[in-house]
Specification:
The chain is an all-alpha fold and 312 residues long. It contains 15 helices and 2 strands. Helix 3 packs across helix 15, helix 6 packs across helix 9 and helix 9 runs antiparallel to helix 12.
Length: 312
């Protein structure tokens, strides 16, 4: 017998064909996203790079020929100037107060809406409405309809019961701004926490009730630990938006009476003082703070997704 041997078939062309087809398939799936990516880079990233470059220059729009490179002097001025430091502190105080109060009120409303009752859908829609109002319109509503010392609703109710007639914005300016923002952001927190409540394991809750656990014990040991991720997500997302808030401060107080936060200070430096470099440095700091908060928010979102996948 004669043994016949067959030469091994070369697999390189087949592998190359598969790789090229995979690359074509991947590019075909990514191609529709390219216009959006190009648009996003042109609208957001290129202006930010320009802002970052300008922040290293002393650049007053009224004296364009006196422009010069100053390094990090603008950032040093933002962090050491008393007015700018006060605006940073105001931003932190405003953000923390609004986020905490909105979370507490949103949790209370979410617990109420989680219970079945007649007209729950209508009540839910009405409670969501403040979040759908344009921020400037909401601030104008609070300024003229509620806070006005002559014809506002608050003073009208106090006049009906024989109470004082305070000027809310002049007497408590920062609290007035915080109240309008809490009214706007409480529905946002309520929606996030309501989604968390509806994702609970109801069998576990029923088992706890059978074992004799009270409503407070169920809330403390089951509901609150389950809502921890949702509370963190609401706090982080709310902080990202509120730290950049400009509408309420501009509309209610025009940055006066100690309510100027960092975004309003950027507006003053750029449009009123024409200090482009200083305003750019302050804006970059706001963006960096928002990116830091957004990073934690993305981690919380990814952990929520992992929990849902593991539960499924």
């Amino acid at each position: 017998m004669t043994a016949t041997t067959t030469a091994p078939v070369a697999a390189t062309p087949v592998r190359t064909t598969h790789r090229s087809s995979d690359r074509l398939r991947s590019w075909a799936t990514r191609a529709p996203l390219l216009p959006a990516l190009v648009f996003m880079i042109a609208v957001t990233q290129l202006p930010f790079v320009a802002t970052l470059v300008i922040s290293f220059f002393h650049w007053n729009a009224l004296y364009p020929k006196a422009r010069r490179f100053t390094g990090v002097d603008n950032y040093h001025q933002v962090l050491t100037d008393p007015d700018l430091r006060h605006s940073v502190w105001t931003t932190v105080l405003l953000t923390v107060a609004v986020v905490l109060v909105s979370l507490v009120l949103g949790l209370a409303l979410a617990l109420l809406l989680d219970r079945p009752f007649r007209g729950r859908g209508l009540v839910r829609t009405l409670l969501i409405a403040p979040f759908l109002v344009v921020p400037v319109a909401g601030a104008l509503l609070w300024k003229h309809v509620l806070y006005n010392p002559e014809y506002g609703l608050f003073n009208g109710l106090l006049h009906y019961v024989g109470g004082p007639q305070p000027d809310w914005i002049s007497n408590t300016p920062l609290l007035a701004v915080e109240a309008s923002l809490v009214w706007q952001w409480t529905p946002f927190m309520m929606l996030i926490l309501l989604a968390g409540l509806q994702s609970r394991d109801h069998q576990q809750i029923e088992a706890a009730r059978v074992d004799g656990a009270s409503d407070w014990q169920i809330f403390r040991h089951l509901t609150l630990p389950h809502l921890r991720r949702y509370l963190e997500l609401g706090a982080l997302l709310g902080s990202i938006y509120i730290v950049q808030n400009f509408d309420a401060v501009f509309t209610l107080t025009s940055g006066g009476l100690g309510t100027a936060n960092l975004p309003y200070t950027v507006y003053q430096s750029f449009y009123q003082a024409h200090e482009n470099g200083l305003a750019s440095a302050a804006g970059v700091l706001v963006v960096i703070g928002s990116i830091v908060i957004a990073t934690f928010a993305l981690r919380v979102v990814s952990s929520l997704f992992r929990e849902e996948v593991s539960r499924a």
